[in-house]
Amino acid sequence: MNREFLINMVLLLGLAVVPLWAMAGDAPFTITLATKVAILALAGVGLNIALGIGGLISLGHAAFFGIGGYAMGILASHAQSYTALMEWPILIEGTKFMPVIWLVAVAASALAALVIGALSLRTSGVYFIMITLAFGQMFYFFAISWPAYGGEDGLSIYVRNGFPGLNTLVPIHFFGICYSLLVLALWFNACLAKSPFGLALNASRQCPERVETVGLSPFRLRLTAFVISGAITGLSGALFADLNRFVSPTMFSWQTSGEIMVFIILGGVGRLYGPVAGAALFITLEHFLGGLSEYWHIYLGVLLLLVVLFARGGIIGMLAGRQVAHD
Fold first, then answer.
1. How far apart are CA 173 and CA 166, in angstroms?
2. Buried-most residue among 39, 79, 126, 299 (CB within 10 A)?
3. Rounded CA gap, 213 and 118, in Å?
4. Pick from 65, 228, 74: which is nearest to 140 by CA?
5. The whole model's pTM is what?
6. Per-residue pLDDT tens for 98-118?
7. Which parts of the chain span the membrane according to its record (predicted)?
8. Is the pLDDT score of 327 beyond 50?
């Protein structure tokens, strides 16, 4: 059993133990923080498929994060209006809602990723980065100018999607759902990386010319990875909207895209559990340092600089003693 596997298991179990400890100590806010870590780590897992395996440096993944959030928010706002009209107060509490809205959010994000990817992947390098950034900013300004759903002020949601047998308004129940989806996404990512598709995608990242000589299309491989990546990120956006019961244009902002990428860089690009380590560290710093100074990002920037300069494999790579995830 290698060292990195043990680190991954400790990280995953630690994320599960913290909210259980908080529940025993009657600290619901800590459970909410752990839930936020799980959701943002899920967004990082989505981007890590495109970035870590496919080598696609996207600064527009906030577009999929926001589409997932707004899909959930818009459908939930109409649902709450309908249930209020029908005088079904128990539905307004959110205990009877099924996770169909999450599936709609995934489908909407995947469709957006298909369109954006089909256009963006015709370029490469800095041009690809700028085009994905431009798409994210387009959605950002569109959300600001959409008064029907709050515009710049965002949209409040008074319901939360339910799940059979669980009350999602109970913090530990909602954490369990988000944590389970994170574990499922990590398992899917691990299977994808070892599959023929994942190996071909990794090969197209390293040498697309050789992939073409064996009859495979690097463009199709990257587009498929981009769509999968967008769908997972969209799911995290829907869960994030559910957690806060609020969506706003900031979900589309380039800062959000940057934060998701920071999770991966901190944890380790190409590392399966890199986004989990990065998201946990980011939220921890935000919680503790944010209370000390509003300029806490300075400390984050210093840490990020140290990781980039001295720990190319991220935190997980440094702890495991392996600086590079793959060639």
1. 6
2. 39
3. 22
4. 65
5. 0.91
6. 578 889 999 999 999 999 999
7. 34-57, 62-80, 100-119, 126-149, 169-188, 219-240, 260-285, 297-320
8. no
Task: Find out whether 237 and 275 touch, Cβ atoms under 8 Å.
Answer: no
- Terminal-to-terminal C-alpha distance of the chain: 22
Q: What is the DSSP letter of 123?
A: S
Q: In DSSP terms, which residues pair with 247 in a beta bridge?
A: 155
Domain-by-domain residue ranges, the chain? 3-320
The confidence band for 90, taking pLDDT boundaries of 50, 70 and 90, is: very low
Q: What is the per-residue pLDDT for 98?
A: 57
pLDDT per position as a tens digit, 272-286: 999 999 999 999 999
**CB-count burial class (<10 Å; 0-12, 13-18, 19+) for 168:** buried
User: If phi over 0 gives left and psi between -120 and 50 gives alpha, with beta otherwise, what is residue 94?
Assistant: left
Cα–Cα distance measured from residue 153 to residue 165, given in angstroms and rounded to the nearest whole number:
34
How far is residue 156's CA from residue 231's CA, in Å, rounded to a whole number?
A: 23
Distance CA 145, CA 35 (A): 31
> pLDDT tens across 203-247, in order?
999 888 888 888 889 999 999 999 999 999 999 999 999 999 899
Those residues whose C-beta lies under 8 Å from the C-beta of residue 78, and which sit 6 or more positions away, are none
Q: Which CATH architecture has domain 3-320?
A: Orthogonal Bundle (1.10)
Alpha-carbon separation of residue 56 from 32, 107, 205 (angstroms) = 31, 21, 8
Please check the confidence at residue 131 and state whether its pLDDT lies above 50.
Answer: yes
Q: How far apart are CA 307 and CA 309, in angstroms?
A: 6
| Largest interatomic CA distance in the chain | 64
**Beta strands, E only, the chain:** 155-156, 246-247
